[in-house]
């Protein structure tokens, strides 16, 4: 990388036990330190993609306070429609082509349970749930880079109707994929058949996830990736596990999903270092190969039946102990044109210098 080409990742501090207004202020500070919003013209529409994998509140899903703060900020900057939407995991919602069993579950009710819907409505935003539009409300897109998908990826049509996209994941462990950060959140866009291909052809699941982030719509419209990480789901995931609330929580923001995930994963690992061996070794199935494969086959069974589950490929473990061992990130470096050099930037003086330095150290490649 040439001098001056570092990719900025902005941190804002959220103190443990602070009030909701402090969280909103930190989201605003992180967002405004990351982008000047020059891409947003008056009246533009914006789609916010949270992590609504279930109906369990933050940090098992995206922070409703953070989502509400982002809707408010976009409205202040001149946005017209601000739409928040997702389609939850197969454990809770299934969209099918079968007219006798077309839809089970409701992402709408799950978003209501998390408190996210109320936060969106209070900020004058609107909600959207991909399964409610039906099987035909998706279109096919092909990754710009990578060769691990047999078919195109089925993405929701609403993404063609909006001007901009903001991704708001969380910082979480994941029982199958090792972690659930920004890149992994792309799964929430997919129609059921794309999810089937990813899980059934599991040998290259991590590569497929990275590649799916390079479809044309996301490459052209995604402007900002911002995570509330004042709480971290440090084990198991995506729905259950051991949450940690560090004394110095963070809001993490970047224009690059890859750079964002480098810092987000470093933050997840940093918090896991503080845990007892009990939580890390005995309450975290990602470290056991048999549990990863069993769990993935169960997902395939839910998606496509017992025959597909029995024929599924084995899923390699992704139990990264440093960010340099993460399978999703390592493939993302390839498909996004190289590993970014990350510049960690504090939104203000409240971010502890030792924390900023530690995350900088964890995301500086040994060869740099």
Give the topology.
Elements lengths: L6 E9 L4 H15 L11 E5 L13 H13 L5 E5 L7 E2 L7 E2 L2 H8 L1 H7 L3 E4 H4 L4 E4 L11 E4 L1 H4 L2 E5 L3 E3 L3 E3 L11 H9 L4 H8 L3 H6 E8 L2 E2 L9 E2 L3 E7 L2 H16 L4 H6 L6 H16 L1 H5 L16 H9 L6 E5 L6 H10 L6
Parallel strand pairs: 1-16, 2-3, 2-9, 3-6, 9-12
Antiparallel strand pairs: 1-15, 4-5, 7-8, 10-11, 12-15, 13-14
Work out the strand percent: 15-25%
CATH architectural group: 3-Layer(aba) Sandwich
Helix-strand category: alpha/beta
Number of domains: 1
What is the third-level CATH name, the topology? Rossmann fold
Count the E strands. Answer: 16
Apparent shape: globular
Count of runs of 4 or more consecutive helical residues: 15
- CATH class value: Alpha Beta
Considering DSSP H and I runs of 4 or more, what fraction of the residues is helical? 25-40%
- Widest beta sheet: strand line-up: 6-3-2-9-12-15-1-16
Spell out the CATH superfamily.
LarA, N-terminal domain
Rounded average pLDDT:
94
Termini separation (Å)? 9 Å
Largest sheet: 8 strands, mixed
Q: What Rg do the Cα atoms give?
A: 19 Å
Catalogue the unreliable spans: none
């Amino acid at each position: 990388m040439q001098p001056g080409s570092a990719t900025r990742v902005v941190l804002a501090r959220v103190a443990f036990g602070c009030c909701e207004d402090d969280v909103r202020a930190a989201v605003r500070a992180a967002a405004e330190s990351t982008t000047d919003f020059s891409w947003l013209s008056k009246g533009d529409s914006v789609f916010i993609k949270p992590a609504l994998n279930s109906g369990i509140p933050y940090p098992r899903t995206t922070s409703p306070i953070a989502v509400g703060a982002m809707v408010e900020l976009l409205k202040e900057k001149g946005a017209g429609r601000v739409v928040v939407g997702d389609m939850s995991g197969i454990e809770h919602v299934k969209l099918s082509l079968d007219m006798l069993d077309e839809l089970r579950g409701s992402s709408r009710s799950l978003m209501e349970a998390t408190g996210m819907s109320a936060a969106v409505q209070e900020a004058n935003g609107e909600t959207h749930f991909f399964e409610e539009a039906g099987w035909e409300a998706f279109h096919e897109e092909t990754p710009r880079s990578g060769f691990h998908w047999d078919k195109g990826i089925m993405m929701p049509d609403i993404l063609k109707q909006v001007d901009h996209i903001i991704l708001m994941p969380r910082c979480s462990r994941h029982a199958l994929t090792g972690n659930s950060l920004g890149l992994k959140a792309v799964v929430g866009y997919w129609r059921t058949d794309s999810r089937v291909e990813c899980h059934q052809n599991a040998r290259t699941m991590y590569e497929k996830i990275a590649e799916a982030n390079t479809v044309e719509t996301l490459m052209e419209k995604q402007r900002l990736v911002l995570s509330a990480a004042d709480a971290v789901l440090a084990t198991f995931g995506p729905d259950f596990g051991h949450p940690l609330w560090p004394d110095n929580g963070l809001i993490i923001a970047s224009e690059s999903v890859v750079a964002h995930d480098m810092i987000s994963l470093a933050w997840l690992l940093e918090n896991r270092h503080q845990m007892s061996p009990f939580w890390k070794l005995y309450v975290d199935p990602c470290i056991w190969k048999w549990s990863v494969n069993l769990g993935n086959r169960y997902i395939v069974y839910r998606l496509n039946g017992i025959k597909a589950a029995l024929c599924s490929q084995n899923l390699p473990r992704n139990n990264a102990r440093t960010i340099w061992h993460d399978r999703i990130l390592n493939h993302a470096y390839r498909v996004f044109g190289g590993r970014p050099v990350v510049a960690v930037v504090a939104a203000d003086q409240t971010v502890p210098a030792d924390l900023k330095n530690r995350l900088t150290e964890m995301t500086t490649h040994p060869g740099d």
